[in-house]
Amino acid sequence: MQRFGNYQNVSSIKAPSDKRIWIHAVSVGEINAAFKIIEALFLITPNINIIISSATTHGFNEAKRKILEDKRFKRKITPLYAPLDMPFAVTKAINYIKPDILAILETEIWPNLFIKAKKAGIKTVILNGRISAASFKKYLKIKSLIKYTLSAASAFSMAGKKDAERVKALGADKNRIIISGNAKFDFLNLTHSSLIKKEIMNLFDLSEKLPVFIAGSIRGKEANIILDIYKKTVKEIPETILIIAPRHINRVEKIYNAAKKKDIKCQMRSDINGKTVKRKEKAIIIDSMGELNKIYGVATVVFCGGSLVPLGGHNILEAAAWGKPVCYGPFMDDFAEAKKLIEDAGGGIQVENKEELAEKVIYLLKNREKAKDMGKKAQKALAKNTGAAAKHAKVIYDLLSYK
Questions:
Q1: Contact call for residues 107 and 135 (beta carbons, < 8 A)
Q2: CA 303 – CA 284 distance, rounded (Å)
Q3: pLDDT in tens, 66-116
Q4: What is the pLDDT of residue 192?
Q5: How far is CA 260 from CA 264, 265, 272, 283, 296, in A?
Q6: What is the DSSP string of 260-294?
Q7: pLDDT level of residue 206 (50, 70, 90 thresholds)
Q8: Is the distance from CB of 159 to CB of 137 less than 8 angstroms?
Q9: How far is residue 60's CA from residue 40's CA, in Å, rounded to a whole number?
């Protein structure tokens, strides 16, 4: 099993190349950022062999999909499941892969992997480094172990100023820290596609005239809040479509039952194919994985969840990349820099409670031109922040020894 460091049956790991780079990206979001960095890396040093690992099935499958769909990546990138961070598994993995560089996306601080890599003479770098407020607090409790682990890294290419400050506070060598920006901006700005939007419009039988309220990555009691807001909204704007996507799919049945109790007729996304089975209700519950980013393209206004409850918020940039105005609650600790970027541009609105959210959603649904203007401002702010992937790629290139 690959999680135990057994990769002997993956022959492409040993493909001939000048250098071999192992990139670890824990899940789908990090995989997307990793591929933008890989694209930039191939431009400056094409004869390399990339090993990309993920700790989740969704991440692994996304990596495979990208490799199969883009001929530039075939025979140059090998997807794997990452080894467990246990000494025997990490040792076996390192001995078989034998990378020149180990690059960790975001900030997956795995002590055994870092330390074993250093002992094997492998340069380790953190790319697109992000440390949320919640993670920072947890790491501070075991600071001595984290500091020891970080001592094994050759470079820290961080996403933002706050991330750089936090990794320094955890014990990283300040001379090895640079701020390169967030590579996810590079990926997000490519998602605004009229073809994708048309696909979703056809799937859900929508038209440009219909107002669409999307509530994404909903958690906990937010589901009931959104359903109550929708009931209030349709009293003023009866034709409004609701698309609600829970953060965790195992919540869909609870949301469906809650909607039923509130006399809101819902339909599951999986029950709609846009051809033989059409949308028949005005409320849709997303019970599929990996589609929310595309679905944001049909929104009039978006609410991003995990933010009206103290859970750190979720990524507001996916909706902003589509040129959509975004609302969110006061708990956005994990996405503070993204929030500031969108707010400063005039593309986002923080609400304090259920009543404020209802007010803003109804206002934007009634004032479509205002909603469009806010969305354009958010999108322009993202466009100005592209280019981070190339900076992260250069950090890897500079660590490679060609002399």
A1: yes
A2: 15
A3: 998 887 887 799 999 999 999 999 999 999 999 999 999 988 899 999 999
A4: 64
A5: 5, 6, 19, 11, 25
A6: HHTT--EEEGGG--SSSS---SSEEE--SSS-HHH
A7: very high
A8: no
A9: 21
Report how far residue 304's alpha carbon sits from residue 215's, in angstroms, rounded to the nearest whole number. 6
> Would you say 36 and 187 are in contact if contact means Cβ atoms under 8 Å apart?
yes
Dihedral sign of CA atoms 238, 241, 247, 248 in order: positive
271 Cβ contact list (under 8 Å, min separation 6): 277
Q: Which two tokens stand for residue 279?
A: 């949308």
Kindly list the distances between the CA atom of residue 251 and the CA atoms of 27, 223, 254, 305, 329, in Å, as whole numbers in the listed order: 20, 9, 5, 14, 20
Ranges of each domain in the chain:
2-189+386-399, 194-383
Select the CATH number that applies to the domain covering 2-189+386-399 from these four: 3.40.50.11720, 3.40.50.300, 3.40.50.2300, 3.90.650.10: 3.40.50.11720
Are 313 and 329 in contact by the 8 Å Cβ rule? The answer is: yes
SS3 label, residue 184: helix
Q: Give the residue-averaged pLDDT of 315-320.
A: 92
CA distance 59 to 31: 6
CA distances from 319 to 25, 153, 215, 345 (A): 22, 34, 11, 14
Residue 403: per-residue pLDDT: 43
Helix, strand, coil content of the chain in percent (nearest 5): 50, 15, 35
- Structure tokens given for 223: 């589901």
SS3 105: strand
